[in-house]
Automatic annotation (TrEMBL):
Name used for this protein in its record: Arylesterase
SGNH hydrolase-type esterase domain mapped to chain residues: 45-204
CDD domains registered for this protein in UniProt: Lysophospholipase_L1_like (cd01822)
InterPro entries per UniProt: Ester_Hydrolysis_Enzymes (IPR051532), SGNH_hydro (IPR013830), SGNH_hydro_sf (IPR036514)
Length: 229
């Protein structure tokens, strides 16, 4: 919250005493109102364990580090952690209404990792992701879609169909901000991952945030700003 509004009842042409023998008319002058602080943008991060910060101290997960990075760039943003470990895209769709109760002004959708790990049919995942994007669009919530890749052990054909799910939806929806791979530059790097080889460590999270930050800022530019109440 910024400084309070200076209130008064200076009628049109009212004279205000400024000293024992000095008075000035207020014709042409409005009551001074200091600029109010902007309310933080509410950014929903809908995801799984990668968003929730699995295996990391609370302040080192993706959501707090993204919020801190945005703050360091002068952006007032409250990132809402709607990450649930183990969740699939269908799970994200099932709880989307609950997440939207926070009235977000923008959304980052980062789901799909568990769909790939379980080799779920891409058509099934695509239908759920379409449902998420449709619901966000109906609420006119600017959205960033972060893509995911399937593990290579399920074969090239499955991997291509899985990746195409995100690419096709992004092409069909030019209103989306699209970031092709959430773990770009981090996946499969032992120095940036926890011992399970799946979840980023603190250093890996910082790299994820650094790489996705320009896309998040592009998303925030689409959010109409309103002053704090």
């Amino acid at each position: 919250m910024g400084p309070g509004i200076v209130r008064g009842n200076a009628g049109y042409g009212r004279r205000v005493a400024l000293g024992p023998a000095l008075a000035l008319p207020l014709f042409g002058f409005g009551v001074f109102r200091p600029a109010r602080a902007q309310a933080p943008v509410r950014l929903l991060a809908l995801g799984d364990s990668l968003t929730a910060g699995y295996g990391l101290p609370q302040d080192q997960g993706f959501v707090p580090r993204l919020q801190a990075a945005l703050g360091a760039r002068g952006r007032q943003v409250r990132v809402i952690n709607a990450g649930v470990s183990g969740d699939t895209i269908a799970g994200g769709l099932a709880r989307l209404d609950w997440a939207l109760a926070e009235n977000p002004q923008a959304a980052l959708v980062a789901l799909g990792g568990n769909d790939g790990l379980r080799a779920l049919p891409p058509a099934q995942s695509r239908a759920a992701l379409t449902g998420i994007l449709d619901r966000l669009a109906a609420r006119r919530i600017p959205t960033l879609l972060a893509g995911m890749l399937a593990p290579p052990n399920f074969g090239a054909a499955y991997g291509q169909e899985f990746a195409a799910m995100f690419q096709d939806l992004a092409r069909a929806r030019p209103d989306l901000v699209f970031y092709p791979f959430f773990l770009e530059g981090v996946a499969a790097d032992p120095a940036l991952n926890q011992p399970d080889g799946i979840h980023p460590n603190a250093k890996g999270v910082e790299e994820v945030v650094r790489r996705i930050l320009p896309s998040v800022e592009a998303l925030l530019e689409r959010v109409p700003r309103a002053p704090a109440g």
